[in-house]
UniProtKB/TrEMBL annotation:
Gene Ontology CC terms: membrane protein complex; plasma membrane
Protein name as it appears in the record: Putative ABC transport system ATP-binding protein
SUPFAM superfamilies: P-loop containing nucleoside triphosphate hydrolases
Family: Belongs to the ABC transporter superfamily. Macrolide exporter (TC 3.A.1.122) family.
Organism: Lutibacter oceani
Lineage: Bacteria, Pseudomonadati, Bacteroidota, Flavobacteriia, Flavobacteriales
Keywords: ATP-binding, Nucleotide-binding, Transport
Classification via InterPro entries: AAA+_ATPase, ABC_transporter-like_ATP-bd, ABC_transporter-like_CS, ABC_transpr_LolD-like, MacB-like_ATP-bd, P-loop_NTPase
Domain ABC transporter per the UniProt entry, residue ranges: 6-232
Length: 232
């Protein structure tokens, strides 16, 4: 029997509740098993990014509960939530969110420094990760010296650094050309298959949607459909 990795119960998010309420997510129930590769889709303003952020503890639900690997993250204090994210969840953002003054090696190793990993262990893991994403020759390059596709691969390596159970990716291919997007998706699909990392994407990109094994469609903050498919 597959292990439940994300379990959201009756989750809602309302912005500006006291002035002009915006119901971004409404009464969503979501059950995700370990090792799934899921695309969260829907029109702009459908609540995809808000739901993704609540699954990762970056946004607090107005109502409802979120469990990650059996831990109710909606009840954790801010400090405990930060620590939980650090060890369990990797994030990949549309805008890369790399630290511009740090090299690729330093950006990837930053999370491991926060975990107090020894310098020797840290360097070994960082080099292995950058090799995994095909950037072993760019370890000393800063973000401004890398292409968009290369920056996003550094971001993926950084997300993987802490050996997370889950990767949450918000429009990770939006700023990439076709070749870079295909390369990134192949890397993620390989990691999903070989390391059983659970991937949840918020996306408009048909390239991502076609790779997913499950497609969840949001409309007006509610789940409109939840369909399993064979990836292409």
């Amino acid at each position: 029997m597959a292990k439940t990795i994300i379990d959201a119960h009756n989750v809602s998010k309302t912005f500006n509740p006291k002035t002009v309420p915006v119901h971004a997510v409404q009464n969503v129930h979501l059950h995700i098993e370990e090792g799934e590769f899921i695309a969260l889709v829907g029109p702009s303003g459908s609540g995809k990014s808000t739901l993704l952020n609540m699954m990762g503890g970056l946004d607090e639900p107005t109502a409802g509960t979120v469990f990650i690997d059996g831990v109710e993250i909606t009840k954790l204090s801010e400090n405990k939530l930060i620590d939980f994210r650090l060890h369990n969840i990797g994030f990949v953002f549309q805008s890369f969110n790399l630290i511009p003054v740090l090299t690729a090696k330093e950006n990837v190793g930053f999370v491991l420094q926060l975990q107090h990993m020894s310098k020797k262990e840290r360097e070994k893991r960082v080099l292995n990760l950058l090799k995994e994403v095909g950037l072993e020759d760019k370890i000393n390059s800063k973000p401004g010296e890398l292409s968009g596709g290369q920056q996003q691969r550094v971001a993926v390596a950084r997300a993987l650094a802490s050996k997370p159970k889950i990767i949450l990716a918000d429009e990770p291919t939006a700023n990439l050309d076709s070749k870079a997007a295909a390369n990134l998706l192949d890397i993620m699909a390989k990691l999903n298959k070989e390391e059983k990392i659970t991937f949840l994407f918020s996306t408009h990109d048909q390239r991502v949607i076609k790779k997913a094994r499950r497609v969840i469609t949001l409309v007006d903050g509610k789940i409109d459909s939840d369909v399993e498919q064979s990836p292409t």
